[in-house]
Queue: 2 jobs
Job 1
Amino acid sequence: MRPLPVFPPGFRWGTATASYQIEGSVRADGRGASIWDTFCAEPGRVKNGDTGETACDHYRRWPEDVALMDGLGVGAYRFSVAWPRVQPDGRGPANAKGLDFYERLVDALLERGIAPFLTLYHWDLPQALEDLGGWTDRDTAHRFADYAALVADRLGDRVTAWITLNEPFVHMSEGYSLGSHAPGRALLLDALPAAHHLLLGHGLAVRALRGRVTGDIMLTNNYSPVLPATGDPADRAAADAFDALQNRLFTDPVLLGRYPDLTAYGVTGLPFVRDGDLALIASPIDGLGVNYYSPTRIAAPAQAPSHQGPSVLGEVGDRIQEAGLPFQDTPIEGHPVTAFGWPVVPDALHTLLTGLRDDYGAALPPITITENGCSSHDEPGRPDDDRVAYLDAHLRALHRAITDGVDVRGYFVWSLLDNFEWAEGYSQRFGLVHVDFETQERTPKASYHWLRAQLESQP
Ligand code: FCB
C-alpha cells in the first residue's frame, strides 16, 4: 500500500449514506409514504422492479453499521433523515418515534467519537406534499423549514453539521425535468419553479436552523467540471449553457444572491421569484458540501440523438436532445470507466475545487467533500482494486487542491454500504462494505481494509 499524503490536522474522514437508500422499514413506527415508495411501485420506473422496501435493513441493523464505521476508523458519518418518518404527511407535529430513531443513531455515533453530519433532505419527499404539487409548489419550501425546525429542536445540540438539501440539481433535473427519478415528472424547463422552491426551502431552513443548532449549516451540491467537446465556439457556448444549469443554478443564488444567465435556454425572466427571496436564499452558510463523481463533455446539439457510449448523462442525454436543449453530452475518451460507465478523471476534482475558489472568491465558505466514490462489479471474494484505485487517485487530487490553497475540511466516501441506487435499483454497488441483499450479511471489501490502513497514518 502506498500511503496517502498527510492531510491537515482536524481533517474529517467519513462515509455517507441516505435514508431511502439504506433504511427499509418503510411502514415502521408511523412513517408516511415518500415519493420514492410511489415511484418504485410504478412498473418500469426502477431497474428489475427493485424498491427500497427493505434496502439494507439499516432501520433495524443500524448498531451493526455503526460498529462497521467504528472498525473503519472514520471520525464522521453523513446520513439523511427521512422527512416522512418525522412528518408522515409533510406537515403538523413531529412523529416522536421517527425522531427517536435518529436520536438513538446520533447518540451511538457520538459515543464512538463519530461526528454526525445530518442531511435533512436526500430526495424522499412525503408523498402527501407531492400530491399538492411537490417542489413546483411554493408552499413546499415553507413546509421544509417547519420540518427542519422539528429535527433541530430534537437534535440541535448534538449534530456536528446540518446539510439542508442533497444535490438539488439532480433532484430537479431527474425528478421534475426528465422524470427518471421520483416523482417522475417530465416538465423540462417548466421544472424551473421547482429549482427556485428548493432554493427557497434551503434559505428558509437556514433561517430556521440558526439559533436552534450548535453545528455548522451547509448545502450539498454535485459538481461536474464541463469540458467543451472541441474549441469550436458553438461547443464552448453549449458547455457554458450546461455549466450554468449543472454547476451554477444552485450555487450562484446561494453564494452570490443572483441566478446565473439562462438566456441560452430562452429564459429571460423568472416570474416565480418574489421580492426578498434571493436575500433569503443567500443567507450565510458555514460550509459548502461538494459531491464529485466525474466531469462532463459537452457539444453543441446535433440534429438527431447521437448518444454513443459512456457519458455522464447516459440515456438521459438523448432525452435532453430530443427536448431541444442547447447542448448534448458526448463521451469522454481515454479514461477508465466505472461500472456505471462514468469516466474516472481524478484531476477534474482538482480543477473543480480550484475553479470554485477562483469563481466565488471570498463568497466561498469552507468546502467538505460530502460524496465521492464509484460503483464497481463487486462480488464477494473479488478484491475491489478498482475502487481502491479510484479513492486513492481522488484523494491525491484533493490533497493537491488543499496544497494549492483550497480550504477543504473533510472527505466522505460514497458509500458505507452497497445500497439502493435510485433508478438503477441494486444493480450498482458503491459500498466499502458488501451487502448480500438476500441475507443482509455485511462483508467489508478490500477498499474498506485499505481505507482503514490509510487512516491509521493520518493525524
Ligand atoms: C449521488 C447521490 C447519492 C448516490 C450517488 C451515487 O448523486 O447523492 O445518493 O446515489 O450519487
Job 2
Amino acid sequence: MYKKIYENIIDELVENGYIVIENALHKQLASELLDKAKQSDNFKKAGISASNEKHIDGRRRRDKILWLDEDNDCVSRYLAFANGLREYLNRSLYLGLSYYEAHFAVYQKGDFYEKHLDAFKNSKNRVVTTVYYLNDVWSEEDGGELLIYDKEGNFIKKVYPKANTLVVFMSEEFPHEVLPAGKERYSIAGWFRIDKR
Ligand code: OGA
Ligand code: MN
C-alpha cells in the first residue's frame, strides 16, 4: 500500500542520498503515535555510543528516548511501513538490511543534539536513517529544526519537525544536528542495520 512512497524514497536515495517528505504517511498515524509517546513515562536519558561504551553526555545531546516495540497498534503500523521499506531497499538496492530499530525521542524546551553522524565509516551497522516527526503544531519560532549537512560539512537542508514529515538518508553520509527546541518536540528516529540483532 506504500508502493508510491517506497519508490519515491528509492529514487531520491539513489539520486541524492536523502529525501524529506511532508505529509508522508497517514496524519492519523502521526497523531496516534504522538498520544502513545505522551502517555509513556518510560523515557530515559539518551546516551552517545562511543567505542561501544554508552555514556550520557548532556553537552552533546539532551533528548530522552524510548525504544519502540510491537505492543501497540499504531507502533505496529509504523513498523510495518518501515519493514516494507526495508524489503524495498533490499530488493531495489541490494542493501542486505537485516532489521530496523527505532525509538521515540522527546526534546524538552532547550534540548538539542549536536552535529553528528549516525554511523561511522566501515562500522557496518547503521546504513539508512529515518526520522518521523509527530508534532501537530510547529512554527518557525519553535526552533528544534533538523539541519542536514553534506560530507564536506556544507549545509544542505533545514527540516521543521512537523507531524507526518519523514526524513530518510544514508547514515554514513550526512552529518546532522537538532537545534534547541523552543517547546516539547517529539520524533521517531530509526535505523536500518546490516548486522545481526
Ligand atoms: C538522532 C537524530 C534527529 C531528530 O536521534 O540520531 O539525529 O530530528 N534525531 O530527532
Ligand atoms: Mn542522528
